[in-house]
From TrEMBL:
<dbReference type="InterPro" id="IPR020094">
    <property type="entry name" value="TruA/RsuA/RluB/E/F_N"/>
</dbReference>
<comment type="similarity">
    <text>Belongs to the pseudouridine synthase RsuA family.</text>
</comment>
<dbReference type="InterPro" id="IPR006145">
    <property type="entry name" value="PsdUridine_synth_RsuA/RluA"/>
</dbReference>
<dbReference type="Pfam" id="PF01479">
    <property type="entry name" value="S4"/>
</dbReference>
<dbReference type="GO" id="GO:0000455">
    <property type="term" value="P:enzyme-directed rRNA pseudouridine synthesis"/>
</dbReference>
<dbReference type="InterPro" id="IPR050343">
    <property type="entry name" value="RsuA_PseudoU_synthase"/>
</dbReference>
<keyword id="KW-0694">RNA-binding</keyword>
<dbReference type="Pfam" id="PF00849">
    <property type="entry name" value="PseudoU_synth_2"/>
</dbReference>
<dbReference type="GO" id="GO:0003723">
    <property type="term" value="F:RNA binding"/>
</dbReference>
<dbReference type="InterPro" id="IPR002942">
    <property type="entry name" value="S4_RNA-bd"/>
</dbReference>
<dbReference type="InterPro" id="IPR018496">
    <property type="entry name" value="PsdUridine_synth_RsuA/RluB_CS"/>
</dbReference>
<protein>
    <recommendedName>
        <fullName>Pseudouridine synthase</fullName>
        <ecNumber>5.4.99.-</ecNumber>
    </recommendedName>
</protein>
<dbReference type="InterPro" id="IPR020103">
    <property type="entry name" value="PsdUridine_synth_cat_dom_sf"/>
</dbReference>
<dbReference type="GO" id="GO:0120159">
    <property type="term" value="F:rRNA pseudouridine synthase activity"/>
</dbReference>
<dbReference type="InterPro" id="IPR042092">
    <property type="entry name" value="PsdUridine_s_RsuA/RluB/E/F_cat"/>
</dbReference>
<dbReference type="InterPro" id="IPR036986">
    <property type="entry name" value="S4_RNA-bd_sf"/>
</dbReference>
<dbReference type="InterPro" id="IPR000748">
    <property type="entry name" value="PsdUridine_synth_RsuA/RluB/E/F"/>
</dbReference>
Length: 253
């Protein structure tokens, strides 16, 4: 009997139910916080069929819903985490109460504004974060300082900053505003604080950072703090039918 007939891996089922990412689900299992039919689970590779009584911290795992995706205009001053040890306000504290439990697709740091994608499905979150999608993250950047001639053009070759290698970067100067510059920067990798590190390398200090797009999904005219769902048809078109089928968005071939 093959694995598909036996069931699905528990960590994958938990991710699809929106409990956590697949890696987060594995952590919950390792911490002994997940039970099946009253018994603690020992490995995230455990196969389940959906008929079991699966519980996380005593709460029964709900049946996975069809994957959904939302665009959210994140304000500055919120952290992209469900719980913050420093007690700061989080993105998830400020979402509409009628939204289901969601995960973020990647993160934006505390003072970065703009487009943050949210989903109820851990598998979809993981798919949209994969570098293999080739999707660019585009930012508007206000920074203090002066640019050396030709420095933006050289970013297209990639560069190494403090031992970290960054791939090709698209950047252009939009305008000058007093002692500040406005730039548009597009990156494909989304490494931690990448835009700030690159600007610092160029002698610029970022004082405002706004993500305006993530792949094909745009911030557009979404007001600060507003959430809007991506239509199912558009989501299927953007992830492709093969991935849509594997996520349960459409029937498999």
């Amino acid at each position: 009997m093959d694995e598909e007939m036996k069931g699905e891996r528990l960590a994958k089922v938990m991710a699809r139910a929106g409990v956590a990412s697949r890696r987060g689900a594995e952590t919950l299992i390792a911490e002994g916080r997940v039970t099946i039919d009253g018994r603690p689970v020992e490995t995230p590779a455990t196969l389940v069929t959906g008929d079991e009584d699966i519980r996380v911290d005593g709460s029964r795992l709900r049946k996975p819903e069809a994957p959904r995706l939302w665009r959210y205009h994140k304000p500055s001053g919120l952290v992209t985490t469900h719980k913050d040890p420093q007690g700061r306000q989080t993105v998830f504290d400020n979402l509409p109460t009628d939204l289901p439990r969601v995960l973020s697709v990647g993160r934006l740091d505390l003072t970065t504004e703009g487009l943050l994608l949210l989903t109820n499905d851990g598998g979809l979150s993981r798919l949209l974060e994969l570098p293999s999608t080739g999707w660019k993250r585009r930012y508007r950047v206000r920074a203090y300082g002066r640019l050396a001639g030709g420095s933006l053009g050289r970013l297209s070759e990639g560069l190494t900053v403090e031992g970290v290698r960054y791939g090709p970067i698209q950047a252009k100067l939009d305008r000058r505003q007093g002692d500040n510059l406005w730039l548009t920067v597009a990156i494909a990798e989304g490494k931690n604080r990448e835009v700030r590190a690159i600007c610092r390398h160029l002698g610029l200090t970022v004082n405002r950072l706004i993500r305006v797009s993530y792949g094909p999904f745009q911030l557009g005219h979404l007001a600060e703090g507003e959430v809007e769902e991506v239509p199912r048809k558009q989501l299927i078109e953007q992830v492709g039918r093969r991935h849509a089928a594997s996520l349960g968005l459409i029937a498999g071939r």
